[in-house]
Structures are given as C-alpha cells and as structure tokens.
Structure prediction request, 609 residues.
Amino acid sequence: MQALYAQLLVGLINGSFYALLSLGLAVIFGMLNIINFAHGALYMMGAFVAYFLLNLGGINYWWALIIAPVIVGIFGMILERTMLQWLAGLDHLYGLLLTFGIALIVQGVFQNYFGSSGLPYSIPDQLKGGVNLGFMFLPIYRGWVVIFSLVVCLATWFLIEKTQLGAYLRAATENPTLVRAFGINVPRMITLTYGLGVGLAALAGVLSAPINQVRPLMGADLIIVVFAVVVIGGMGSIMGSIITGFALGVIEGLTKFFYPEASNTVVFVLMVVVLLVKPTGLTGRAA
Amino acid sequence: MSALTDDTLPVTPRAMRDEMIVFAVMAALLAVVPFTGIYPFFVMQALCFALLACAFNLLIGYGGLLSFGHAMFLGTAGYVSAHALKVWGLPPELGIVVGTAAAALLGLVTGYISIKRQGIYFSMITLALSQLLYFLYLQAPFTHGEDGIQGIPQGHLLGIFDLSKPIVLYYVVLVGFLAGFLLIYRTINSPFGEVLKSIRENEPRAISLGYKTDQYKLLAFILSGTLAGFAGSLKVFVAQNASLTDVHWSMSGEIVLMTLVGGLGTIFGPVVGAFVIIAMQQYLAGFGQWVTVIQGVIFVSCVLLFRRGLVGELAHLLRRSL
Prediction:
C-alpha cells in the first residue's frame, strides 16, 4: 500500500504541473487566440532562473518563487510585444508555428550551454525532511508543491472569475472591439495576460526544480502531455483546466502502480477515448 | 478563419502548362544529378523528405489541416519496412508495400480520431498521437528501442535492380518521388481536391452545399499519411536503418519547417524547402545544438516576414501558380 500512496503523491505533483501549465495555456488562448507552444520552454526557463538566482546571486528558493515568474513573465511580454502581436487576425496555425520556433530557439540555446544532463537544485531547509502520516511517509517538499499549486490555481480562478480585472478580461475575450470602445486598453491587457500565463509556467518550473532537476529539455515532452490534457479538458473553462490537470496526474500515478508499462501513454490513450466518446472535450462547448 | 494562402489563383490551362514545364525541368535536373558529382546520398535523402513534405502539404496547403505528427507515418512505415526486409526477408518491393500499407492503416485510425476536432485542436491531437506511438515504439521489442533496426539488406528490386549500387538506388528513389509527386498533383487538381480547398476556405459553407466534409478530410488524411509512409519506406533503403529519431516530435517539426520555408499550399514549395533544410543540416552539422536554434529562427522569420515561403513569394512576383 505504501507504494500505491507514493505513486498517488507523484501523480498529484505531476497533476499540479499539468494544472498550472494548462491553466496558463487556457488563459492565453482565451485572450490571444494562440496555442503557446513555447510554454514548455518557458517552464524550463523558470527553473533555470531559480538555479541562476541561487548559484550566481545567492538568492534563495522563496525569493525565486516570486522573482523567477516575474523575470520570465517580462521575457514573455517582450515576446508578445515584438512578435506575437503581429499575428492578430491571421490563422491560429501561425501562432502555433511561431511559438514552436521560439521554443526551439530557447531550448537550443540552453542545450548549447548546459548540455542535456540535469543540474541539481536543493530543497530549501524549511521544507526538508518528511512526516509520517501513519499510512505513508510524506516528504514535506512534495506536500508543499501540491498545496501551493492548488492555492495558486484557485487564486488565478478567483482573479479571472470574481474580480473587476477578470471581468474586463473575460469581456475582452468575448468582444475586444467593444471593450476598447469603453476606454480599456485591450492591447496592454493582452500583453499582461500573456505575461500572467507565462509566469504561471515559470512558477511551475521553480516548483519542479528540486524534484526533477533543472534540464534544458524538461519542458519539451511535458508540453505535449499538457496539450493532451487541454484536448481532454477543453479550454473553455478555468476550473475545468484545474480539475482535469489534477485528475489526469492522479490517473497517471495510479497507472504507474498498477501497470507501469502504460504510464507514459495513459494520458494520450485517455485523450483518444474522450475524443471518441465526447469529441468536444469534457468541459468544452461545440466549436 | 482567414485563408492560409491569400492569393489563390484560378486553375487555368496556362497555369497547368506552366506547372508541367516546371515539373519537366525539375525531373530533368534531378535525372542528371548522378553525373554532376553531387553526393547522391544527400540528394536521395532530400528526395525522401521532399515527398514527405509534399504529402504533408496536401493536408495543410489544400485542406487547411496542420498535422504536427507526420513523423509517425515516416517512422511507422520505416520500422515495418525494415522489419519486413530484415526479419521476414521479404524482397524490396514487398517491403515497400508492407510499410506503406502500415502507414495507410495508421492514417485511417489516427485520421478518424483527429478529424473529430478542428483547427488548433487537430494539431494538438496529431502531436499527441505521434507521441503515443513514440512511446509504443520505445517499448516494443521489434524496434530495438534506442538502437533502432540497423544493417537492413537492400536487395534486388523486382529481382533485377541491385539497390546496393548507389546509382541504381538513386533512380529508384527518383522514380518513387516523381510518382508520388504526380499523384499529389493529380489529387489537388481533381474534383476531390477542389472540395478539399473549399473546406479549407469555408467548412460550414461546404457542409451546407451537401458535402460530407469529414469523409473528405479523412480521405485526404489517409492519402497524405500513405504517401508520407511511402517516403519513409524509400528512406529505409537510403539510410539502411530505422530509428526513434524518425518518430520523434522534432521530426514532425522539421517536416512543418520544410513546407513552411518552401511555401504552404504551393506545388513545388515543399520540394524546395526540403532541399534547403536538408542542405542546411548537412553544412551546419558541426555546429551542434545551434542547428536547432537556427531552425527556430527560420520558423520565426518565416511566420513574421515571409509567410508565402520561397516558392510562394516567387509565384506572387510572377503572378503564376507554382
């Protein structure tokens, strides 16, 4: 049973990353109408910024949790201002191609300087060790990742669904021209939205650094799984993205316990099943 | 949704004549390659990728469907052909048939699943499906995992042509490429191709005119996958191996890049794009990971600066369809 709980925990952690990344993809898709293929590369950048902060600047994990998403978020906003904004009005596919190119550049540069092996990032002192829950041993850091991710996801949901700013955002998603007529600076909101989505990816990167090591290609395979998560959940609903992300992480964890051979493929297989049974995705409306 | 090609020209007898002239020039140039001293292996490899890119272009350029998983056809046909030649000891012609048939079957299954969604979702689904196959091939015993299938016997095609001779192999690959190219050319100029273009331009309207668009898209997907598989089977004879590289998502990205560089929705663009990208990889092989960065830069600049691609820009200048 110990092993089962351990895999469930791993599943919850992966689920946290799926949720944070698919949430960002959904927010960006809502505003910019593009699928951000660079999301995995920016997640990787988040982890690397945390690594640099610690090893070059002596800045610890807690500050990195704030600073890394801000730095990567600013980098994302520069990308949006200099490149992505020129794609407005073009076919969605160009956004995918452009961000795929950006992902290749970012990953290629990091691979050039850091190879493909992983760099270690140690767990902060306050979160070292573990507690015995009676039925299993819980490493504190892993518990922290799950709870913190959940809080961030819910805070993002609250920001978008319940605040004034979120209301502007949702309105601009529906009808940007009309929202602009009310005197709201929609282009600036688009830039900030991209920064927010990218910042969430970078935050996931910082959280994963002590668990998965810091590698240039850490986001490359992950983003494809997240795409499958997005296809399953649909991008219409913020809460839908969060729940689908965590649920698929848990299912993947269970697969690792019961049938390890399929743990790499279970999310893709589920995607196929969902497409055959309910083609619009679990929370999606008809396109 | 705005159309991918903003200046589609009507198909006129003159356009057809122009295209046939360009085709004849291309075929003649490729036919004399072995006598010019150009490394034939390079051109054979480029021809396989050119056919692959043309097959991909049939979907994106004429059907508006961006498949981000076309490497799965290349890899599947490659593995099946390689296995058939090496383990079953089939002759080359049957090896190609079996590999291509496997790709066709894969096209039927993955096409049925992926056309359930449109636009951006279609791209994500094809990418996810190819990643699913990547993991299956990584674990399946017959692919030999990371090592791949190596030392594949080339044999005698139809018992006559000795494929281990580079010059014979070159003309076999060339004939295969030209046949595939003409099949695609015929398809896009057929009534079927016209319906496909109408789906790209405005799918709801095509549906309202009574076309069962899903069937057209599925058929286009199967045809594209089959031809991509045919290219993969030919490539087995050139490279004499089949490995995981051919199924990896980065290969799918390269196929997209070749077509984008040459020109989406142009007839000759994918061929030009494939030669440009393969040549680039050849000459920049010493630069390691910088090749990936350069590919990324080409992606970005193609999308931002010249979306029509090399051939598309030329066609636009000449006001011709190429």
User: Anything to note?
Assistant: The first strand of chain A starts at residue 130 and ends at 132. The two ends of chain A are 43 Å apart (CA to CA). Chain A has a mean pLDDT of 89. Chain A touches chain B through 46 residues (CB under 8 Å).
